[in-house]
Amino acid sequence: xxxxxxxxxxxxxxxxxxxxxxxxxxxxxxxxxxxxxxxxxxxxxxxxxxxxxxxxxxxxxxxxxxxxxxxxxxxxxxxxxxxxxxxxxxxxxxxxxxxxxxxxxxxxxxxxxxxxxxxxxxxxxxxxxxxxxxxxxxxxxxxxxxxxxxxxxxxxxxxxxxxxxxxxxxxxxxxxxxxxxxxxxxxxxxxxxxxxxxxxxxxxxxxxxxxxxxxxxxxxxxxxxxxxxxxxxxxxxxxxxxxxxxxxxxxxxxxxxxxxxxxxxxxxxxxxxxxxxxxxxxxxx
Length: 285
Known about the structure:
The protein has 285 residues and is mainly alpha-helical. The chain has 14 helices and five strands. The strands form two sheets. A three-stranded antiparallel sheet has the order 3-4-5, with helices on one face. Helix 9 (184-196) packs antiparallel against helix 10, helix 9 runs parallel beside helix 11 and helix 10 (200-213) packs antiparallel against helix 11. The termini are far apart.
C-alpha cells in the first residue's frame, strides 16, 4: 500500500491521494492506471507514486476516454502522441486538451485537432484542473527549502508550479538562481514570468544574465529583444534580433520581428529581406 507522506517532506509532484481528489476518482483507480504502463510517474522516498501536473492532465483524458469505452490500445496511442506534444519545460497553460469520449484532442496555435487524425474539432480547457490542484502547492517553496534541493531540482519544481501558481513558480526560480546564478534556463523562464506580469525592465535583467551565462542562446537574445521593444529601445532590440538569427538562422519569429522593426525605422530593403526569409521558413515548416 502506498504511504502518504508528510507535506513538509514532499518530493516533486502530487501523491496518488491528491490526484484522486483533483480528478474525483478513487486512489485504487489511479494506482491501477499507473501500474498499467499508461503513465510513468516518479517514486517518492517511501515508494509512493509522485505525479506531475502533466500526468494529472493525461489522467483526466484517460478518465474521460475510458468512461466513453474507448479501447485501452487507442488510449495508449493517444498518450504517446500527447507526450510528443508536451515537451519538458513547456508550461501546460500554453496547451489545451479535450475529449469527445472517442478521441484525444489537442489545441495548438491554429485550433484544436485530433491527436491521431489531425481533424479540427471543438476544445475543452485544462484551466479547471489547475484551479483544483492549486491548494496542493500552497507553501510548496517553503516546504521544499527544507529538502536541500539543488538548482536543477528547483528549476524543475518551478516549471511544474507555473501551471497552478505563478507566484510560487517565481519563488522557485529564484531559489534555483540563488544556488546557481548562471542557470540560463531559470533566468529565461523567470524573465518570461516577470515580463508577462508587466515588468519588462526586470525581465530584461534576467535575459541579459541568461546571455552572459549562455552566449549561444538564441531564445535569450530573442526574449531580451522583445523586452527592449516594450521599454522603447528599438535600436538595441534590432541588434538582439539580429543576434538571435545569427545564432539560429531559421528563427522565423526573429526574422518577422526584424522585418517589422526595420520597416518602422525606414530600412525597407532590410525589412523586405527578413520578411521574405520569414515566409520561406514558415512555408517550409
